[in-house]
UniProtKB/TrEMBL annotation:
Residues 325-419 form the Enhanced intracellular survival protein domain. It comes from Microlunatus endophyticus. This is UPF0256 protein. Acetyl-CoA binds at residues 105-107, 113-118, 138-139. Keywords: Acyltransferase, Transferase. The keyword Cell membrane does not apply. It holds the Pfam family Acetyltransf_9.
């Protein structure tokens, strides 16, 4: 059979694709992101999470761009890995501490499992100026190897509103709740939330840019629900003392029913908190509620007469990695007086580990490196998990993962590091 003639397509000009280096031949170089590379980088991040790129979603992040904090591996003219961090401040008992809010961590599929995340983590943790890095993990098994521990846990609450009558003794106060527009809400909620920052550890300070991000609400993020709506509670004298951000969504599982989805809710008094919940649960046409991120000690269960009607799921929330032990432990106060030596075994960043004398109490603390015999040894990951009382040191002791050299130390640390109210983080990134 005669060989076929090649088909000539000379009437259509064919553009030649740029040469593409196959992944196994790629030479990789860790680089920081220059300002004119930001959008390109964002597109790679978005693809790393299997999403489509929409520039409007990145506006707040872009405004928070700090040269040097956005970086990744490049080959040729393309990013194949990404990571970045924002400077944030987090409430801790007795004060605030600087944290690096880590996010946008991706490795392109063709380059996974060859140590690039590990190299990025090492670069990031050794270059940030904050004593603590913090993140939300897409998969809870990823970050422990780098010394991250579960800083906070949270509850997912849901249920049918008509089954959630309050106990008769619940005090709803003499004030009232009203729905307001975004502009009104923002002028009230910004100072109100700032006044509540110190009442619970784990909260992050928000600047104007962060608030812009909180209120960014493209329709594609709503999954069929309404835009954000906003409610304020006004005390008897008319002062706003509580707030709630929520959406409503048609709930196909209930005929003619809708669900109220509560994003944030907080108040300066128990009466305002209860009144806000009552208002949300009593909305006409609403038959179900959902709150995806509630503190582990949220009082809603105590307000209702039939708490079993609240479906409650416990999940890991924020993770933390302590890179500067004296600065992190010295930034907070402790519930009881302490003077002990903690040994931190840090396999990933050995220079961050060592023995530390912690002298502290309700009024503050001081931490110094020491070579004294430790009272207790734990890993960097466990230190992060006990830092705000999220996991009791005694739980690690019972798991056989923490060594008490002085009997009773795990119990003492559990009491001293514990927090009431429990640590809770509202800002997801
Ligand atoms: C804060 C945030 O942004 S969270 C977002 C994290 N990113 C994502 O989930 C996006 C999709 N996933 C990815 O991009 C990548 O799979 C990453 C970033 C999670 C991992 O990147 P990699 O470059 O493959 O990680 P790396 O090769 O450094 O892995 C180091 C170790 O962790 C393990 N590991 C890393 N990720 C995973 C995972 N998702 N599941 C199981 N094991 C994992 C590796 O097997 C390896 O183990 P080993 O040391 O025993 O060999």
């Amino acid at each position: 059979m005669a060989a076929r003639e090649p088909i000539m397509i000379d009437s259509f000009p064919m553009s030649t694709p740029a040469p593409h280096t196959p992944p196994h031949q790629a030479e990789l170089d860790l680089q920081t992101v220059a300002e004119d590379q930001i959008e390109d980088f964002e597109r790679v991040v978005t693809r790393g999470f299997h999403s489509d790129f929409h520039g409007d979603e990145w506006v707040p992040e872009r405004k928070s761009y700090v040269p040097g904090r956005w970086f990744g591996f490049r080959t040729g003219d393309r990013w194949v890995t990404t990571a970045l961090s924002f400077p944030r401040r987090m409430s801790v008992p007795g004060g605030m501490v600087d944290v690096a809010g880590v996010t946008a961590v991706t490795v392109a599929p063709a380059f996974r499992r060859r140590g690039l995340l590990t190299a990025m983590m090492r670069h990031q943790l050794t270059t940030i100026s904050e004593p603590i890095a913090m993140l939300y993990a897409t998969e809870s098994l990823i970050y422990g190897r780098f010394g991250y521990g579960s800083l906070t846990r949270h509850l997912r609450l849901s249920g049918k509103t008509r089954e959630l009558g309050f106990l008769p003794e619940v005090d709803l106060g003499q004030g009232s709740v009203d729905e307001v527009d975004l502009d009104h809400y923002r002028t009230v909620v910004v100072p109100l939330r700032a006044s509540l920052l110190g009442t619970r550890p784990g909260h992050l300070e928000r600047d104007d840019v962060w608030w812009d991000g909180v209120f960014t609400d493209p329709e594609r993020w709503r999954d069929g629900a309404s835009a954000w709506r906003f409610a304020l509670h006004f005390a008897a004298d008319g002062t706003p003392d509580g707030y709630a951000t929520f959406r409503t969504k048609r709930d196909s599982s209930i005929a003619d029913g809708r669900e109220v989805q509560v994003s944030e809710i907080d108040a300066t008094t128990p009466q305002a908190y209860a009144a806000l919940w009552r208002w949300l649960l009593d909305l006409d046409l609403i038959r179900a509620f959902r709150r995806g991120n509630a503190p582990v000690d949220d009082p809603l269960h105590e307000l209702v007469a039939n708490p079993r009607m609240i479906k409650t799921e416990l999940s890991d929330a924020a993770y933390a990695r302590i890179v500067d032990v004296p600065a992190a432990l010295g930034a907070r106060s402790y519930t009881v007086d302490l003077d002990l030596v903690i040994e931190v075994v840090d396999d990933f960043l050995p220079k961050s580990g060592g023995r530390f004398r912690l002298q502290g109490g309700p009024d503050g603390s001081g931490v110094t490196r020491t070579d004294h015999t430790p009272d207790l040894s734990l890993s960097a990951r466990q230190l992060a998990a006990i830092y705000l009382g999220g996991t009791p040191a005694t739980t690690f002791a019972r798991a056989g993962l923490l060594t008490e050299h002085t009997p009773g130390m795990a119990g003492l640390i559990t009491s001293a590091f514990g927090s009431d109210p429990a640590a809770f983080t509202t800002d997801f990134f």
